[in-house]
Specification:
Radius of gyration: 20 Å
Number of strands: 9
Structural class: alpha+beta
């Protein structure tokens, strides 16, 4: 396949974010050396942009920071301050993109943007939906995740000071409370009691 055919295939596909393996499959290149050379050339020609090792996007199909956040650390979904701001509940725009993840706590600096991932328990990895190509917490789940990390002393209560709790549907919030062990639930109620 010629370089022009490879570029055409990238532009014609509906995929904007790709791993090395994804490029190998899409372009049907079997030789790892040939693939490495092609990726290098496509980056130099500004057809691909490298996010981090083995992860790229098609430059002409610039993904959003939320899509990038889900892509560079998976599984994850946008939550905490970023989701609260996205839902119009937090007036300050966070400088970092915050996500909930199953893996360990990680910070990544990619293309000048800070992405932070906070670990939550597997049974709490719920309450999100897909919007415009990325996963994001509902407003109630974003609040729940925030309070969950506060209860574990990972975050401070400062963020809760600026939130209008009447905007949240507490029945949706309470669904997530059922997932918590009793010892954590008591701390949750203590924290929430200050703001309701």
């Amino acid at each position: 396949m010629s370089a022009i055919e490879n570029i055409s295939k990238l532009y014609e596909s509906n995929i904007s974010l790709l791993t090395t393996f994804g490029l190998e499959n899409l372009l049907q290149i079997k030789s790892s050396r040939t693939l490495e050379d092609l990726i290098t050339r496509l980056i130099q020609e500004n057809v691909l942009t490298q996010l981090e090792r083995g992860k790229y996007y098609v430059t002409a199909k610039q993904p959003s920071n939320f899509e990038i956040a889900n892509f560079i650390y998976a599984p994850s979904y946008i939550s905490f301050e970023t989701a609260l701001n996205h839902h119009g509940l937090l007036s300050q725009f966070p400088l970092e993109i915050t996500s909930a993840a199953l893996g360990k706590k990680v910070e990544k600096q990619v293309n000048g943007q800070l992405f932070t991932y906070s670990k939550i328990d597997k049974k709490l990895f719920t309450g999100y939906y897909k919007e415009s190509g990325y996963l994001i917490a509902t407003k109630e789940k974003a609040l729940f995740d925030e309070v969950y990390l506060i209860s574990k002393s990972v975050k401070t209560e400062k963020i809760l000071d600026g939130l209008d709790m009447t905007i949240f549907e507490m029945s949706k919030f309470e669904v997530f409370l059922k997932l918590l062990p009793q010892r954590v639930l008591k701390t949750f109620y203590t924290i929430m009691g200050k703001y309701l």
